[in-house]
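Lab notebook, entry 289. We have the chain sequence and a SMILES string for NAP, and the next step in the workflow is to get a structural model of the bound complex before anyone spends time on docking refinements. Request logged below.

Task: model protein plus NAP, output C-alpha cells.
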Amino acid sequence: MTDMSGKVVLVTGATNGIGKVAARELAKMGATTVIVGRNPDKTQTTIAEIKQASANSQVHGLIADLSVMDSVRSLAEEFKRNFDRLDVLLNNAGAVFSERQETADSLERTFALNHLNYFLLTNLLLDVLKRSAPARIVNVSSDAHRMVRRMNFEDLNSEKSWGIMGWKAYGQSKLANILFTRELARQLEGSGVTANAVHPGGVSTGFGKNNGGLMALMMKAAGPLFMKTPEQGAETLIYLASAPEVQGVSGGYFADRHPVEPSPAAKDDAAAQRLWEISAKWVGLAARV
Ligand SMILES: NC(=O)c1ccc[n+]([C@@H]2O[C@H](COP(=O)([O-])OP(=O)(O)OC[C@H]3O[C@@H](n4cnc5c(N)ncnc54)[C@H](OP(=O)(O)O)[C@@H]3O)[C@@H](O)[C@H]2O)c1
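Result returned:
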C-alpha cells in the first residue's frame, strides 16, 4: 500500500458510492482526508465510518451543494482556511437527472454539477495544488461521453433539446470532463500538477436512483448482476490518486488502471479550449490558469 501520510486529499461526492470507497482507502494509506458532502448528518456519519475503517483520525468534512457556484466558492475558501496544502483533488460528485432542472444560477443542473463544479473548484484550488506539487487532479468521467458525437456548444444549457431521460445532458457533461482534463493538463505542463480522467465502469451505487421511477428501477435491477461493486469501481480513482507509477502522467483517460482512448470528440483540442473559455465566462473566472 502506498504511504500517503503527510498528504492532504479532497474528495467530492464522498458520502456515497465510489467516492466514499476512494476516500476510505486513501485514509487507510494515511492521507489527511477531507470529504465533501451536501448533507451534514450523512457527512458526519461517513466521517465516523471512514475513521473507524481506516484507524486514521485525520478525516474531516466540508459541506457544499456543488451544483451551486457560490457554494463551490465557499467550499474552496473554507478548505483554504483550514488546510495549507492539497496533494490530491478528486472531483467525483456527479449525477444524472431524468427531468431538466435549473439551479439558482439558471444553469441546467447536470452541466452545473458534473462539469462547472469540477471546473470552478479546480481553478479555485490551483494555487494550493501548485504550492503542494507534485500534486494530482483526478476527474471522474464516464464512457457515457461516447453517447454524444461532440460538445453541443449551441445548447450547453440544454434549453433547446433534452433527449431521453437526461442521458444527452449527462453524456455531454462527461465529455466535458475529458475535454476539461485535457486542456487543464496542457495548461499545467511543467507545474508538477497532473490531471487525469477516469471511467469507473458501470458500478452499483446510488447513481440514477435520485430520480425514482423507471430510471431507479433499471439501476436497481442492473446492480448486483451486471455492475461492479463500489470497491471495484473506485480502483482506478485510487490508483490515479496514489500509485507511484502514474506520478507525472497527465492528460490521460483511464479505465481498469490503464490508459484508454476516449472518443474522437474527447480529443478535440479546439473544443477543449472553447469549452474552457465558455466555462470561465459562465462561472466568472479569468480565462487562463
Ligand atoms: N455508477 C456508475 O455506474 C458510474 C459510471 C460512470 C461514471 N460514474 C460517475 O461516478 C461519479 C460518482 O458516482 P457514484 O456512482 O458513486 O454515484 P452516487 O452513489 O450517487 O454518489 C454520488 C455522490 O455525489 C454526491 N452529490 C450528488 N449531488 C451533489 C451535489 N449537488 N452537491 C454535492 N454532492 C453531491 C452524492 O451525495 P449524497 O450522498 O448526499 O447523495 C454522493 O456522495 C459521478 O461523477 C458519476 O457520473 C458513475
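Notes for the group: The two ends are 34 Å apart (CA to CA). Worth checking against the assay data. The domain at 8-280 is CATH 3.40.50.720 (Rossmann fold).
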